[in-house]
Amino acid sequence: MARSVVSDMFVYIFTWSLKRQGKIGGKDMIVEIDESKFGKRKYNVGRIVEGQWVFGGICRETKSTFLVPVEKRDKDTLLQIIKDKIEPGSIIISDCWKANNCLQDEGFQH
After folding, report:
1. Taking phi first (over 0 means left), then psi (-120 to 50 degrees means alpha), and beta for anything else, what does residue 107 get?
2. What pLDDT tens digit does each residue of the chain (110 aa) get?
3. Which residue of 58, 72, 87, 93 is 20 to 30 Å from 110, comparing CA positions?
4. Cβ neighbours of residue 39 under 8 Å, at least 6 residues apart?
5. Is pTM beyond 0.85 here?
6. Residue 28: left (phi > 0), alpha (psi -120 to 50), or beta?
């Protein structure tokens, strides 16, 4: 039962996020970003072998969010999503992934 509830919640949030138009954040607003893999374990044991990578963000001030399924988690793919989904001038908080080091060159604070 718990698995179907989690799946239903993910589908609801993901669908709602896809319908949302516009960018989140803004000048001096904080946007947290990260990527995660949603999937399952084979026979519920061991490492995750199947799933979908999703890149997302949330604005701390407005609670606006975005979620985008991604095939590749490379610099070019994620940077394009950031430009499409986050207002320039936003303060971006992320993990220490090296690809995010270019955000200051793109009009964001990091």
Report:
1. left
2. 455 555 666 666 666 665 666 899 999 999 999 998 877 776 767 676 678 888 999 999 999 999 888 988 888 999 999 999 999 999 999 887 776 777 877 788 87
3. 72
4. 48, 49, 50, 51, 52
5. no
6. left
- What are the tokens at 92? 């971006």
* Residues comprising the chain, all counted: 110
Per the structure, the complete domain to which residue 22 belongs is given by 2-106
Number of domains in the chain: 1
| Two tokens, residue 28 | 């001096």
**Structure tokens, 30:** 């904080």
Q: CA-CA distances (angstroms) from residue 36 to 4, 22, 56?
A: 19, 22, 8
What is the CATH number for 15? 3.30.420
**What backbone torsions phi and psi does residue 39 show, to the nearest 5 degrees?**
-170, -165
CA angle 104, 13, 9 (to 5 degrees): 135
